[in-house]
Design goal:
By secondary structure, this protein is mainly α. 41% of the residues lie in helices and 6% in strands. The chain has helices spanning 15-44, 87-102, 113-119, and strands at residues 71-72, 75-77, 84-86. Strands 1-2-3 form a 3-stranded antiparallel β-sheet.
Length: 129
Amino acid sequence: KPKPKENGGYDPNGQSAKKGLNRVISDAAWGELIKKVEVVAAKSGIPVIKVNPRHTSQQCPKCHYISADNRSGEKFVCTECGYHDDADINGGVNIRNKGLKQLGIDPTQLPSVRSRSVAYGQGKLRPRN
């Protein structure tokens, strides 16, 4: 039987009753995935860096402004500087940048992979001759 919320109502579909179980299952699955990634990376001599994902989907990688309003579903549009991108790509860029900073590498000094591929014909890579 679902447990009532603090305000006396219930979550749809008994979610209150399932939250704890869902959290345990999710945490276990992520833990196993992390272990597997660490083992495979170690065998290949690749370091694994854990990055705090906090605000990575809401932060602009250009001006570093953080706001929940920057993210709307699959789209990321910075309300401060106007930068826009796919929300998942934006989050990935921010995670990469945090990891590089942990290694003491300035992400702004690296070439942009995206702009390089676009230079080869609107995002399509040309075959090597």
